[in-house]
Amino acid sequence: MEQQEHEMFAAPGPVRSERILYTASAFAKTNLLYLQETGSLTAQKPHTSRREKLLSFLCFAVLKGSGSLEYENRTYRLCRGDLVFIDCRRPYAHSTDREELWTLRWCHFYGPSAQAIYAKYCEYGGGPVIRTQKLESYLRLFDELYDTAGSDDFVRDMRIHEMLSRLLTCLMSESRNLEAHEKGAVKRRDIQQIKLYLDERYQEKLTLESAAETFFINKHYLARLFKEQYGVTLTAYLQQVRITHAKHLLRFTDKKVEEIGIECGMGALPYFSRVFKKMEGISPSEYRKSWLG
User: Fold this and answer.
1) Structural contact between residues 130 and 176, judged by C-beta atoms closer than 8 angstroms
2) Bridge partner residues of 68 (DSSP)
3) Among 10, 95, 106, 113, which is disulfide-ready with 48 (CB 3.0 to 4.6 Å)?
4) 232/220 Cα distance (integer angstroms)
5) Residue 35 in 3-state DSSP?
6) Residue 138: which H helix or E strand, with range?
7) Nearest to residue 35, comparing CAs of 154, 134, 148?
8) pLDDT digit string (tens) for 110-128?
9) Phi and psi dihedrals of 155, rounded to 5?
10) Element (H, E) at 226
């Protein structure tokens, strides 16, 4: 991996900051999540930072003080322990309070998959502000990013990609609306029972309609709840379960391909083969041969 350049400086003006402006390699920009900038700042006087149309995503944590975020026509109050995660292509502004000047830790990043990941985060219920209970975990990640960006590690772009993936995983795991999460606890237990039902009865002829009838729930309501909790539709989840069992039988048994399709609830060969290839990119027979050598 090619050598990178970075710059560390204390910025003048209304804040005191330490930051690294990171120049990722062409390989990283094409294939990885890559860092653009990371650092920390402490406000010296009240100020507002206002930007838009940046090809970047911003995550920052409030360590001390308080302030506000303007984003998507809303204003959010921020205080110690809050996290912000936003798409910087959209207009945004953040301001420190006059009475309690804040200290922030942040990183700007991007990558080929960043937009899709942010869309999934929003789909899961994630908003621009997270009231996290895991501030220390995020601060350790920011420390790792800063130290790695400032190092001469030959594979630091790969390490940064791994750290940004962990950051996004943490953000995604906290993306649920906690109030809705608590109110929906009973319904989620019901949906977990339905998931278990699919795991155990995948060989049978199951559909969204049949599952709804079995558990006495409206099929449209079931579809929405299942997608909210597991991130995929009930039908897609059932297909994943069936394909996983089919792959196991293809690799570790001598059963015929058509027999496996029927046993896994996907029917005769033409349909089974079509679904398998759509999911895995190769036919069941090709999958078996690739693993048997």
Assistant:
1) no
2) 77, 95
3) 95
4) 14
5) strand
6) helix 135-149
7) 148
8) 999 999 999 989 888 899 9
9) -110, 35
10) helix 219-230
- Reading the block at residue 94, the tokens are 């953040």
**Long-range Cβ contact pairs of 15-20 (< 8 A, separation 24 or more):** 15/41, 15/42, 15/43, 15/44, 15/47, 16/41, 16/42, 16/44, 17/41, 17/42, 20/146, 20/149, 20/150
Give me 123's structure tokens: 């789909």
**Cα–Cα distance between 100 and 141 in angstroms, integer?**
25
Return the closest-CA partner of residue 129 out of 185, 70, 195. 70
Integer Cα distance of 135 and 39 in angstroms: 16
Tokens at 281, concatenated: 């990119």
Chain-centre distance for alpha carbon 149 = 22
pLDDT tens per residue, range 28-50: 999 999 999 999 999 999 989 99
* Rounded CA separation 147/188 (Å): 41
Residues 136-152: tens digit of each pLDDT: 999 999 999 999 999 99
